[in-house]
């Protein structure tokens, strides 16, 4: 850590005032993305309409098709059109891929080399998405769209950390140095150094972009699941998926300590150590098949 980083002193009041201004000035999602989200929620919409909207952004359309044709989905024949992708995968899956690619593209500015390790961050995000999906499949087999929603929740759960690292690189580098020195989790260090954590920042971003309430909860509560939350099942899946990704070696940051599995989530999971190990093995296997998604995320830099 360079001396100029070590010597930085952060006034939390000034930082929070600046953060509030930058959050309020955060650009909206691209207009085409907003229209896509509206179309998916319209019961009268069609696959052709969704195809038309996504195709308005050729870069986005290309990325979605690359992901759809990846080993993760494992289709025997190449899917050449977005209409076909929607028919096979469903509206929600395609919507969530659009949302994930677009959200990261808006937030992923270059940072200093001393804060968030971006390679580790992308790997952790994809691994957490895969793990959350596996857990939802095991624990919520009868809940409609639970797998798809848990996947996007796992993918976007740390957008608050990405935002802090992108827009406040020096302050976040100081926070990471503090976490490493004091052996703190990321949110503990953020609260102590900055006076706010990435869960709160992520929630603010998700609300600013009018994300569905369950996605806001997964982003804003993934380290603090509560049985009182109406979205507890999905939050629990992402909380457990985040920890599963860490245990598989896909850590969000080499500077911070991992979280322990929350007792309420542990009870909710109701799985044996052998079942947990099986889910770890599945996560590793599916992560290896997710290289296309990982590459698209990295390209958003």
From TrEMBL:
Gene3D superfamilies (UniProt xref): Hypothetical protein af1432
HDOD domain: residues covered: 26-225
InterPro entries: HD/PDEase_dom, HDOD, RNase_Y/CdgJ
Name under which the protein is recorded: Predicted signal transduction protein
Species per Swiss-Prot/TrEMBL record: Chthonomonas calidirosea (strain DSM 23976 / ICMP 18418 / T49)
């Amino acid at each position: 850590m360079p001396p100029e980083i070590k010597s930085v002193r952060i006034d939390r009041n000034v930082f929070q005032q600046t953060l509030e201004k930058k959050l309020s000035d955060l650009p909206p999602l691209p207009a085409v993305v907003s229209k896509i989200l509206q179309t998916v929620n319209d019961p009268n919409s069609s696959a052709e309409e969704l195809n038309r909207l996504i195709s308005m952004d050729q870069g986005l359309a290309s990325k979605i098709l690359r992901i759809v044709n990846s080993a993760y989905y494992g289709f025997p024949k190449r899917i050449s059109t977005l209409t076909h992708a929607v028919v096979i995968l469903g509206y929600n899956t395609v919507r969530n891929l659009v949302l994930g690619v677009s959200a990261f593209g808006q937030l992923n500015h270059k940072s200093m080399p001393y804060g968030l390790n971006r390679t580790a961050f992308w790997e952790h995000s994809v691994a957490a998405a895969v793990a959350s999906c596996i857990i939802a499949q095991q624990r919520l087999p009868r809940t409609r769209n639970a797998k798809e929603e848990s996947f996007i929740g796992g993918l976007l759960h740390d957008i608050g950390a990405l935002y802090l690292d992108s827009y406040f690189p020096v302050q976040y580098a100081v926070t990471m140095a503090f976490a490493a020195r004091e052996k703190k989790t990321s949110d503990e260090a953020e609260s102590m150094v900055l006076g706010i954590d990435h869960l709160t920042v992520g929630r603010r971003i998700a609300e600013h972009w009018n994300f569905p309430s369950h996605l806001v909860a997964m982003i804003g509560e993934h380290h603090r699941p509560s049985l009182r939350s109406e979205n507890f099942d999905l939050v629990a899946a992402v909380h457990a998926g985040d920890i599963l990704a860490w245990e598989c070696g896909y850590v969000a940051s080499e500077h911070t300590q991992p979280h322990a599995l929350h007792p309420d989530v542990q009870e909710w999971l109701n799985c044996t150590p052998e079942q947990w190990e099986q889910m770890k093995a599945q996560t590793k296997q599916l992560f290896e098949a997710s290289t296309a998604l990982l590459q698209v995320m990295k390209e958003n830099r």
